[in-house]
Amino acid sequence: MNMTNVEIALEIMGKGMVGIFAAIFIIMIAVILMGKIANKKK
Questions:
Q1: CA 10 from centre of chain
Q2: Per-residue CA distances from 33 to 3, 25, 39 (Å)
Q3: How far apart are CA 11 and CA 33, in angstroms?
Q4: Does 7 have pLDDT greater than 70?
Q5: The predicted structure's pLDDT at residue 29
Q6: The organism sits in which domain of life (predicted)?
Q7: Lower CB density within 10 Å: C or N end of the chain?
Q8: Residues 8-35: pLDDT tens digits?
Q9: CA-to-CA separations, 39 to 26, 28, 36, in angstroms, rounded
């Protein structure tokens, strides 16, 4: 196995992890905002 292949694989994995963390972060913010809006309506 070439080092270049390993580097490419790690780069793809890194981008995937960043994407997953970004998605989780965005969902958490959306949930917090929804909670604040729901509390104001009561």
A1: 17
A2: 45, 12, 10
A3: 33
A4: yes
A5: 97
A6: Bacteria
A7: C
A8: 999 999 999 999 999 999 999 999 999 9
A9: 20, 17, 5
- The residue with tokens 């780069």 is 11
38 residue type, one letter: A
Percent of residues in the chain assigned helix, strand, coil, to nearest 5 = 95, 0, 5
Q: Which two tokens stand for residue 37?
A: 């809006």
Residue 1 pLDDT exceeds 70? no
- Residue 28 one-letter amino acid: M
Q: Cα 17 to chain center, whole Å?
A: 7
The whole-model pTM stands at 0.59
Pairwise CA distance, residues 40 & 17, whole Å:
35
Q: What residue type is 1 in one-letter code? A: M
